[in-house]
Design goal:
single chain, 4-stranded antiparallel β-sheet, 6 helices, 32% strand
Length: 246
């Protein structure tokens, strides 16, 4: 299960652990061939930059750029120096038709909670895309109610530096509308105290998502319900969207 990088990943200890917590990502099998087929790629919310590093390792010779607001995450990303790493978010850049492929992974799209954030971010993506460029991303399908599994009983543990680090989620109830708030507690016997963050994500349904994309002049080409490209249904865990600048 993947979670968007929140402000706490500005904490260097957690930035170092991010890829370990996200090991075995199914989404990379879906996204990597698309990245490799594009000449210029922007990864929005790139985190540690693992997807772009994999693309370069696989032989991508074009422009690869990663954008992220967490400096500690970018410190991890900058271990690979043949990729452009940009500190910021979509409100702080002004690219004009520079990328033929833009991607958001790890459910990063869901951190855009307010309508104004969505409109601004999608407008920036539209501006950054070339005339026939594509924007590909995923968001969790609200009808699958995935947040109901975000409980301390489903905590994840990894081994790091000879010690165990535990990540546990707790959703704030009741859940109102399409917005879900939750806390994440990271703890380890080797730490003085746990690190706790609070995050809020938006779960847009397919119709609402289509409306926002259309408003930004982005046309949906394909949508899938999982990483095996099965059709989107009410029980699908994901809404994986391939949109083109229109």
């Amino acid at each position: 299960m993947l979670f968007v990088v929140d402000y706490l990943f500005s904490e260097p200890r957690l930035a170092e652990l991010y890829d370990a917590f996200c090991a075995g990502r199914e989404d990379f099998d879906f996204y990597l061939p698309l990245v490799l087929s594009a000449k210029s790629v922007l990864d929005v919310g790139c985190g540690t930059g693992e997807l772009l590093r994999l693309a370069r390792k696989a032989g991508h010779t074009g422009r690869l750029s990663g954008l992220d607001p967490a400096e500690a995450m970018l410190e991890q990303a900058r271990k690979r120096r043949d990729i452009e790493w940009v500190h910021g978010d979509l409100s702080s850049v002004d690219w004009d038709r520079e990328f033929d492929f833009i991607v958001m992974t790890g459910h990063a799209f869901q951190v855009l909670v307010e309508d104004a954030q969505l409109h601004m971010s999608l407008a920036a993506i539209h501006s950054a895309l070339t005339e026939d460029g594509r924007f590909v991303f995923e968001t969790r399908n609200p009808s699958a109610r995935g947040w109901e599994a975000w409980t301390p009983d489903n905590a994840v543990e990894i081994s790091h530096g000879g010690s165990v680090v535990r990540m546990a989620h707790q959703v704030e109830t009741p859940v109102a509308g399409d917005v879900v708030s939750f806390t994440v507690t990271y703890s380890s016997p080797s730490w003085d105290k746990p690190l706790i963050s609070r995050s809020t994500l938006r779960f847009l349904d397919a119709a609402s998502l289509s409306g926002f994309l259309s408003g930004a002049k982005l046309t949906i080409e394909e949508q899938f319900g999982d990483w095996d490209r099965h059709p989107l249904t009410d029980t699908s865990p994901e809404i994986i969207t391939v949109a083109r600048r229109g």
